[in-house]
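User: Structure tokens for this complex, please. No commentary.
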Amino acid sequence: MLKTLKKIVLGAGLGMFLFSCQSNDENIVNVYTHRHYEADQQLFDKFSEQTGIKVNVVSASADELIQKLELEGAGSPADVLITVDAGRLFRAEDKDLLQQISSDVLEKNIPEKYRSPSGKWFGLTYRARILAYSKERVNPGELTTYEDLADPKWNGRVLTRSSENIYNQSLLASLLLANGEENATEWAKAVLGNMPRSPKGNDRDQVKAVAAGEGDVAIVNTYYIGIMLNDSNAEERKAAEQVGIFFPNQEDRGTHVNISGAGVTKHAPHRENAIKLLEFLSEAEAQSILANINFEYPVNLNVEHSDLLKSWGDFKADEINLARLGAKNKDAVMIFDRVGWK
Amino acid sequence: MDITKQNYYWWNKWSGAAVIILIVIAVPVFTIFFKIFEPPGNSWKHLSENLLAGYFLDTILLLFGVAFFTFLIGVTTAWLVSNYDFPGRRYFEWLLILPLGFPGYIMAYTYTGMLDYAGPIQSFLRNTLDIQVTGSLLDIMNLPGAIFILSITLFPYVFVISRSSFLQQSKTLQEASALLGSSRWRTFQKVALPLARPAIVGGIALASMEVLNDYGTVKYFGVNTFTTGIFRAWFSMGDATTAIYLSAILMLFVFTILYLESLQRGNRQFGNANSLTKPLERVHINWQKKAVFTTFCTVLFLISFLIPLIQIIYWVILTYEKVINYDFFLLIFRSFSLAAGTGVGVVILSIVLLYALRLSPFKWMKNVTKIATLGYAIPGAVIAVGIMVPLLGFDKWVTGIISPGNIRLLLSRTLFGLVFAYIVRFMAVGYNPIDSGFQKIGIHINEASRLLGKGSTKTLWKIDLPLIKPSLFSGILLVFVDVLKELPLTLILRPFNYHTLATKAFDMATNEMIAESANAALIIILTGIIPIIFLNRMIRRKEA
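Assistant:
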């Protein structure tokens, strides 16, 4: 009885095993992506057109994709992982989910600070985490650095989202590397004390709260302002028009930036196609589409910035390699939890 | 004399099948139970030092808040519609059940969209009246907001149960109370409420289970309950053991509620000895009171159902051209077939279990088969974790035998795990109607068929099932609707690239596409209303 049962189970397992071992020489590339913009699809279509490689897309949240890659292990059908923030790419690298790629095209197109030193992931676009201030109540001359937001003069005026958000985690990681753990902890505590309300909502909500007069300065990513200025809802546009953009830390290390990026998965069944896709995404044509979809900065220096980005002017970005921020992500999360920044 | 039972062996193919079903269904609970004894994962220390107290606090405040408000709203409305005559009363009897069709998470982001800075209310105040609302006045994304949202979607549980309890109460008792000089209020307090207590507490217990199960609302509002903690441990920290520790604590909450509920019920009988009591006659009241009662019920209905529904329909009108395409129909088709398939699966398993019980000579079998329905009390996230872990173990075991070193995912990458989890979670929903169906037709008709020489399978097929067709149908329908609404479990177990209407709606809403998400939401709500109307009709027929 037990023997037959074992036979049945193994037989069924073998069947499923063969089923899941589809041939790998198909001309496809499987992408796990965290981005869900329609224009991304247009970009993939263009890639298929040029190369004849079909792009299969699976979209889910980044944490979910990383966790599923981990569970799937060697059986994973994924070739490329696309996500935002170096913190997440680092986590994927740290869990040994990505493989090293050496490609002259990628190295030429992408500045060194926007890719992992190990060659396991590559930035595609970057965005700055800036201060959006009320044009009515704040004189831009008052603003200087992220560190300055801990000053008592900002009491009841600083707005930002929860610490569960990876953008805030990476920002704190950059402060941690610049000023040390003790100072970063003090900073987090003081900024939390300067907030008029508990951290909540997304970046757009912070801008709207400034417009509503709940606070005066919001820590947000640049592209959210772009999205709001182009929203179909007039109220969103009006809110975004009430804030000015300030790039902090221009006198010292520069404004904190982060990336959206991609890597080839460790067990990629279509490795060559995956590399082709990454190279395609780093070239000027794709870069300008990719960046413009979402009002981001292209990593490729040969690509012109969109008019909106030009209107904000040039700025000095923090030169630190983003991989180092990823490595400090866990410490940053623990600081947030310790000081009670929800 | 029970001749037939002698011919039945206590062990037959039905009881064999029933035992297997019960064991498989108990897998998630056992998994969690055994995993508690493993050493904690690496995030546990950090989590227990910094976050655990917050999880406890938020979970308990949410539970008490929702319990209090569902009690207040549910009992008040139930008392009004069962005791007084006021304009619209007959409609409110079923209109006030409709909010149950609104999943909490959809209600949550509908209200967020309405009260937002760029939403209709603030825009109107700002642009027309020149009032800028600041501070927490219209801010709903917090713990009180979550209590509000869950209370207005869950109060119908208390309303329905206490209403039928008030209606069943003997008129004689209340008349006696009135004759002894009690006011209406005192009668309510001293006679009606205590008599209805077990029912009301039962309703609140049901609502509390839903609160513990909720993920969408609390996640969206940034309230940190155990369910969000499980997601954080499982996804952000990638730590299954910590997720299981949290699941185990959450289960303790569930068992405490179930225990308190059974404790207050005790062994006492609260029914009427005399089943021929006259129904309560409704009290006629002056027009001022009528106006107050009608207004109260209308406002409640507007807040808990009509206004959010109108907002959703408005969003659909704004966005349907962008959203409704081939993929959207594919999404509907997938969700519906998944829900229908699970419905049929649950009903077939329930039939096997209940038929085994029907043929069994032992009374205690009833308590054994009841085990299958425990899943309804277990939060979806817990079931998901309890299923994911053994499935992965199974995959590793099988592929390890076939080709060592090359582990592939078989079951855990398919719909199998998801449907399995749905069945565990919603077994009770299909089981109970079939149970009452079987009880209604009695055993004698089955025994007659067996005496005439037909086998147990043939009898089931030819005699029993045709007789309980309506129960089968309502079993499938109820499971169907619950699967369609389900969120936390689906988020954890769905295969790649696989969305249901619920996950799609939630995904869009959390990605700042609230208006677009309304399309999927509307389908879920409208489907959810069908069984409510259907069941209300059945109740009506019974009352008539």
